[in-house]
Design a protein that fits this description.
Mean pLDDT: 79
InterPro entries: Ig-like_dom, Ig-like_dom_sf, Ig-like_fold, Ig_C1-set, MHC/Immunoglobulin, MHC_I/II-like_Ag-recog, MHC_II_a/b_N
CATH superfamily of the largest domain: Class II Histocompatibility Antigen, M Beta Chain, Chain B, domain 1
Largest sheet: 5 strands, antiparallel
Helix content: 25-40%
Structural class: alpha+beta
Membrane topology: Single-pass type I membrane protein
Number of strands: 14
CATH topology of the largest domain: Class II Histocompatibility Antigen, M Beta Chain, Chain B, domain 1
Keywords: Glycoprotein, Membrane, Signal, Transmembrane, Transmembrane helix
Bound molecules: 2-acetamido-2-deoxy-beta-D-glucopyranose
Number of helices: 5
CATH architecture of the largest domain: Roll
Shape: elongated
Strand order of the largest sheet: 1-2-3-4-5
Protein name: HLA class II histocompatibility antigen, DQ beta 1 chain-like
Subcellular location: Membrane
Length: 263
């Protein structure tokens, strides 16, 4: 399901009826007639196109054409009658199809390009400050490399929303297109509670939930230990090299000094 990602654009045409008011008492200075034509793009590749044409008189919606439904409906007594006849007119149907092709299909590549730019956030939940007994710990839930920038992060304690101790950054632009976002939670750990961070973004068909786990998973522990051993090994090699270098220097110097002495 991809119902979340959705684009649309509209063209609006106004017709002020002031000119008519000189000839007829029916229209006043302020009357206007409006035609609004909208294309909406839906589906995984935005290839589900819908064309909606609405006509209004002074903000009162009068008629609506919906390409999915394939007909007009009227909202006032007069337009209900008019839509009955327009729906039986093959020329009207043809005109609507031509309009839809010109307005919506001519623009679909552009919409797809914008749509393809959207990327799902990659998420990370970590602790930035451990509790020291007096101060609470601080967790940060981060979203990286996502587009568009609208995003929502919610903290949950045992699946209930937490609002206290929460602070958010703005969506920070990264490079030309992508954004990152961080949400902080101050919290005092108590046993048996589950803290999680919930992320909502247009590219996710349902919210993604990351559960905070205080104990490092085994894989991470191993990585740290292997990394640490590597560091120590490197240090040992460095120190022994340094000692060797010093020794060699001393040796060289003594050779030089002996030569000097010989002259
Ligand atoms: C157009 O008609 C279809 C089918 O009846 C409906 O699902 C859709 O919501 C309508 N669109 C609008 C904008 O009303
Ligand atoms: C957008 O992505 C879809 C599928 O990934 C692809 O079929 C389509 O050609 C792309 N459109 C553009 C304009 O890049
Ligand atoms: C935390 O991670 C450890 C190791 O991966 C796992 O055994 C434990 O069940 C996890 N705890 C929770 C609450 O998910």
């Amino acid at each position: 399901m991809c119902g979340f990602v959705f684009f649309f654009f509209c063209f609006v045409f106004f017709l002020l009826l002031t000119d008519f008011s000189h000839f007829s008492a029916v229209f006043s200075e302020d009357d206007f007639y409006q035609v609004k034509a909208c294309c909406s793009f839906n589906g995984p590749n935005f290839d589900k196109v819908e064309y909606i044409l609405t006509t209004s008189f002074n903000k009162q919606k009068m008629m609506e054409y919906n390409s999915t439904r394939g007909n007009w409906i009227g909202f006032t007594d007069f337009s209900i009658v008019a839509s009955y006849y327009w729906n039986r007119d093959p020329w009207d149907r043809l005109e609507r199809l031509v309009e839809m092709r010109l307005m919506c299909y001519e623009n679909i590549n552009f919409i797809q390009t914008i749509g393809n730019l959207s990327t799902t956030p990659s998420m990370r939940l970590k602790s930035v400050k451990q509790t020291d007994g007096r101060h609470p710990a601080m967790l940060v839930c981060s979203a990286y490399n996502f587009y568009p920038k609208q995003i929502k992060i919610t903290w949950l304690r045992n699946d209930q929303e937490v609002t206290e101790g929460v602070s958010n950054t703005d969506a920070i632009p990264v490079g030309e297109l992508y954004y990152q976002f961080h949400s902080y939670l101050e919290y005092t750990p108590t046993s048996g509670e589950k803290i999680s961070c919930m992320v909502e973004h247009v590219t996710l068909s349902e919210p993604r939930i990351i559960v905070w786990n205080d104990s490092l998973p085994e894989g991470e522990k191993n990585k740290i230990i292997v990394g640490l051993s590597g560091l120590i090994l490197g240090l040992v090699i460095f120190i022994s090299g340094f000692i060797y270098y010093k020794k060699k220097c001393k040796l060289g110097r003594s050779v030089i000094s002996t030569t000097v002495n010989m002259q």
